[in-house]
């Protein structure tokens, strides 16, 4: 297990960490401004099919956002009844979707609905469609509705993809539309070209007549199926789309309509519209694949290093609308074909499928969603699966067989329950879910032509990636979408765009079962047994305290891209400080090797503690004596510092000296840094670390000290008693601690320590985090409503995280004042100067 956990491929690139925090950029309707080159306006009504789908929803948002510029006077959606819901109900549900919140006014003014099922004859009505009933003339029909499953029987694919499209095209002509747009797929090219990019032209079907292929497909399909295999199509979906393109162009040419074919490749989450990371109402394509990996429904995909032919859905929507409003085709021509793909010239800006999977498992391991040994095993299996034969075997063993067994077990369980009369809706729902998951077992094999092609899928396209495109950030958007679907039970949720969204928080101590902590501690590569035991025990004690520790992942970049030895400089609020930082580094070290468990410069008072002093020294602590405003170095300090730097482990020093009473920011001391610089005789990097707590075990004793009571001495027996209270469940809940790292500062022989310390201190204050508990404490002191205080803080640019502690739990004076002072320290710039200086 340790060898798997030490897999080098799990180490994260430093560029990924900043991308975990949201970047402020244009999104939604603002992203659309000036993006279309409008040469012929619509000036009338638009009929749209598939608006509740992924691509159709993206196009609907674009039409609403640019309605005035395009001259759109009405948008009519063709919807069918579904799951007992009327079309009016589905329209109301679509309107309430958070994706359309920004364009709600345009939605209410422009959007209406008519009932119809494109896959049924006469759209599911008893008679043929009547005349156009809207007051505004119909100008454009966009046909996006499609069944995108790859494993449809050929007859079903022909009916749902070809018959339905031809029926909509004829309806467009009957209702007077002049332009018809058909959303196809870029994979109408059966295989990628070995030496060139695939062009924007109709695909040759050799000697096969498209109409004859269609007629055969909707009957028995034997000849059409043989033609599909001869032409090299990997599935019925791409084959049916290729045939549909030919027939659509013929039909539109006969009727004298402008025909526009738009071919997206693998459609992935939005870059900016309706919002960054939007993925529709259900997972699809790569997001669905990653969701199934996260849920362990699938294990193995065959991946290659070729650029993945993905394209964001908003880029596809923009290409579709642009095709409609570009100049009319030349005289005699009635058709345009556009690849809504990333052009071959920009393919290098796209991640490979291999990179998508690798970084997904890196992120899952960082967040703790999978263990390091499991992630290392999957990483190795995916490398072996690059061989086609090995993939075939692993796919059957790791994907197909377990899901077949699960689906069979679900069916058998349901049958047995029904036989003995124990059937229930909950059991039926669970068994149905297992059967659905079982059907996904063939997904890796279906994806193989696209995830591991013999040569890269490259297209010639007029589409260009957005100017602010960042491939690393987009990779994270895809991962975020999959994780959000998993957290919401498969329901769509917008990825939050604030610094308090929690996605970038790494929960290094949580309420996981004890065996998960044991697995994490004792499989840690290169960890001595004593360190693993200490980590396991620390996690149990913190869980007895109901204490959660979260690290801001984006802030870790400051400690991962440095070549100098690290000196970690945390705030000093509790005896838990070095415990929390040590546990966090222990947990993150395999993924971020620079963050090894640090050697702690501890006060000499700890050395005198029976048993505990020796244990801390064995774990890497060394002791210094403080006094007279400076640090008096131990005679062995020079050798100790040299030994630490030679081992490559960071140093951890508390520049404030003593723990802060009341959580005010104490003036940083220069004595220890001066001593370290003198004895190390090398350049080091100081990394500020802000530790922000909700409640602390020392709150009461600190409050008593501030009132003039003597400070109780440190005691091993008190710690042991604390542990036993935790084992008996007698400890209260202490909430959470948040860890944020600041930008590193170089300490060398030329550095001016007063200036350096002032910069570090400023960062430590600015990195402080607060939660709703801090806002509640401030509200109680000011006799205001907590919600009003939270709103005021957020409006002033202060992020307020949610609190795990119940809002009804009363706060004592000893708990309230530290929370208030911590909040006030963060607000010092808005306070009178003398107050700010005191804080």
From TrEMBL:
Transmembrane regions listed in the UniProt entry: 45-65
Full protein name: Fatty acyl-CoA reductase
Top-rank taxon: Eukaryota
Any GO molecular function: alcohol-forming long-chain fatty acyl-CoA reductase activity
PANTHER family per record: FATTY ACYL-COA REDUCTASE CG8306-RELATED, MALE STERILITY PROTEIN 2-RELATED
Family, as annotated: Belongs to the fatty acyl-CoA reductase family.
GO BP term, pick one: long-chain fatty-acyl-CoA metabolic process
């Amino acid at each position: 297990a340790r060898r798997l956990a030490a897999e080098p491929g799990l180490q994260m690139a430093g560029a990924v960490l900043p991308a975990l925090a949201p970047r402020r950029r244009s999104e939604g309707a603002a992203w659309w401004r000036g993006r279309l080159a409008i040469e012929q306006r619509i000036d009338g009504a638009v009929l749209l099919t598939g608006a509740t789908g992924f691509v159709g929803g993206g196009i609907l948002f674009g039409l609403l956002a640019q309605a005035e510029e395009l001259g759109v006077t009405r948008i009519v959606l063709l919807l069918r009844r579904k799951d007992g819901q009327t079309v009016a109900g589905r329209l109301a549900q679509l309107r309430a979707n958070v994706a359309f919140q920004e364009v709600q006014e345009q939605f209410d003014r422009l959007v209406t609905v008519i009932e119809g099922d494109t896959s049924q004859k006469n759209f599911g009505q008893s008679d043929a469609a009547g005349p156009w009933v809207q007051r505004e003339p119909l100008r454009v029909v966009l046909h996006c509705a499609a069944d995108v499953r790859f494993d449809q029987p050929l007859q079903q694919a022909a009916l749902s993809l070809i018959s339905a499209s031809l029926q909509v095209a004829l309806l467009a002509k009957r209702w007077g539309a002049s332009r018809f747009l058909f959303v196809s797929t870029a994979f109408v090219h059966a295989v990628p070209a070995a030496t060139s990019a695939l062009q924007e032209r109709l695909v040759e079907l050799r000697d096969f007549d498209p109409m004859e292929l269609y007629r055969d497909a909707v009957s028995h399909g034997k000849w059409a199926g043989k033609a599909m295999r001869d032409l090299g199509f990997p599935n019925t979906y791409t084959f049916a789309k290729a045939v549909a393109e030919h027939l659509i162009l013929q039909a539109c040419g006969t009727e004298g309509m402008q025909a526009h074919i738009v071919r997206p490749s693998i459609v992935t989450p939005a870059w900016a519209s309706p919002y960054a990371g939007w993925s529709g109402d259900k997972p699809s394509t790569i997001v669905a694949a990653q969701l199934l990996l996260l849920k362990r429904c699938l294990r193995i995909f065959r991946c290659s290093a070729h650029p993945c032919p993905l394209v964001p859905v908003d880029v596809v929507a923009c290409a579709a609308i642009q095709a409609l409003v570009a100049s009319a085709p030349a005289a005699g021509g009635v058709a345009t074909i556009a690849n809504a793909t990333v052009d071959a010239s920009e393919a290098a800006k796209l991640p490979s499928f291999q990179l998508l999977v690798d970084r997904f498992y890196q992120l899952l391991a960082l967040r703790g969603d999978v263990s390091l040994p499991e992630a290392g095993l999957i990483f190795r299996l995916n490398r072996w699966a690059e061989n086609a034969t090995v993939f075939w075997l692993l796919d059957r063993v790791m994907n197909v067989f377990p899901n077949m067994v699960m689906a069979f077990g679900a069916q058998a369980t349901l049958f047995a329950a029904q036989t003995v009369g124990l059937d229930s809706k909950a059991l039926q729902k669970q068994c149905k879910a297992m059967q659905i998951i079982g059907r996904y077992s063939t997904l890796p094999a279906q994806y193989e032509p696209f995830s591991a092609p013999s040569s890269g899928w490259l297209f010639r396209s007029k589409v260009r990636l957005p100017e602010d495109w960042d491939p690393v950030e987009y990779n994270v958007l895809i991962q975020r979408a999959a994780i959000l679907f998993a957290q919401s039970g498969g329901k769509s949720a917008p990825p939050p765009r604030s610094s308090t969204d929690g996605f970038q928080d790494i929960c290094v101590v949580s309420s996981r079962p004890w065996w998960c902590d044991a697995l994490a501690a004792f499989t840690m590569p290169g960890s001595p047994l004593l360190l693993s035991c200490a980590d396991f025990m620390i996690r149990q004690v913190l869980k007895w305290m109901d204490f959660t520790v979260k690290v801001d992942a984006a802030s870790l970049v400051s400690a991962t891209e440095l070549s100098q030895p690290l000196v970690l400089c945390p705030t000093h609020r509790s005896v838990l400080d070095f415990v929390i930082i040590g546990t966090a580094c222990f947990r993150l070290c395999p993924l971020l090797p620079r963050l090894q468990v640090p050697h702690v410069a501890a006060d000499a008072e700890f050395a005198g503690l029976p048993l505990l002093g020796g244990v801390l020294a064995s774990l890497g602590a060394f002791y210094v004596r403080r006094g007279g405003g400076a640090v008096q170095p131990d005679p062995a300090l020079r050798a100790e510092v040299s030994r630490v730097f030679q081992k490559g482990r960071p140093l951890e020093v508390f520049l404030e000296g003593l723990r802060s009473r009341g959580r005010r920011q104490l003036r940083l001391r220069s004595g220890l840094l001066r001593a370290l610089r003198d004895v190390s005789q090398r350049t080091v990097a100081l990394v500020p670390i802000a530790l922000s707590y909700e409640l602390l075990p020392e709150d009461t004793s600190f409050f008593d000290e501030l009132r003039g009571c003597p400070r109780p001495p440190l005691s091993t027996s008190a710690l042991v008693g604390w542990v036993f209270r935790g084992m008996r469940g007698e400890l209260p809940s202490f909430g959470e601690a948040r860890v944020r790292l600041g930008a590193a500062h170089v300490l060398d022989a030329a550095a001016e320590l007063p200036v350096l310390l002032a910069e570090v201190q400023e960062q430590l204050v600015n990195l402080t985090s607060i939660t709703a508990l801090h806002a509640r404490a401030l509200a109680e002191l000011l006799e205001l409503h907590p919600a009003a205080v939270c709103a005021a803080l957020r409006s002033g640019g202060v992020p307020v995280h949610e609190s795990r502690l119940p809002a009804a739990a009363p706060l004592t004076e000893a708990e309230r004042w530290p929370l208030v002072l911590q909040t006030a320290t963060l607000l010092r710039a808005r306070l009178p100067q003398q107050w700010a200086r005191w804080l």
